[in-house]
Amino acid sequence: MRRIVLAFALTVGLAIGTVVPASALDTSVTLNCSDGTSVKLVVDANTLTGLTQAVQAMIDYPAGLSCTLIQNPLGVTFGQIASASTGSNPFIVGGGRWQATVFCSDLQLTPPPPPPALVGGSTVARVPGSWSYDPNASPQETDGATTMIWVNIAVNVHQMDGGTGPFFGTLNETIPTQQSTACGGTVTERHFTSTPTCLQTSLGPPLSAAVTSLVTQISGDPFPHATALGQSINFSFIDNGNPGDGNPPDMLQGPPEPANSACSLPPASPPDGTLVNGNISIRNPSS
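The structure corresponding to this sequence follows.
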């Protein structure tokens, strides 16, 4: 039903009348989100499709943020328009779910003991902690088992005044309840809400963004690498284009994995998390 309501709202909006274009193919829309933000955008058809997919993914994979897109009718006077073209306000809007690799200990779970090893046909005990090592883990995180978990993300981050003004919006994540065979138990639901303090965007290629955000709300069990109110977290994103157009999936990295960026581009290493479902839309390079 939610999918039908969203589609209906967009259809009604697009039927209001002649749009206010920046060019013959551009459309003026308003992005309204539950974090209290309302941003007017002039977008091309590709960006409109990407934003629609991102908004729908926030519904399909909830992380405490929802948005709607409404087309602006002819004759509306705007205070400020963030055009999705070079030199206008940078933004990243995305939603969906991705797969992250997390240590069982960070999820407060203890993996089951490994099966005994066979040496020369005889069974010998294995040393505890000798299973499921992550070869890319930092030195302080090399003594535990890891598991892949689903993580829902919703990001709505903007900067005003063509990349020189204040930042606003939200970056949220929710780890839904799920089972982990590797960790031998149930991964319980946990969530954080955060407010951006930095945004860097680049048109690349590829389209990329880095965000620093301040944790303002937490719930459930501890969220790995985002465990305290007032903590700054870092995220990096790559927008590979809209899904369904034959593009590779979008990529991202941040909690519950260690961050690879401190709001700078390019990040120290490419984001390693795959957005399996949903879409990330990045527009306008930072000044």
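Residues 4-24, 76-81, 123-143 have pLDDT under 50 and may be disordered.
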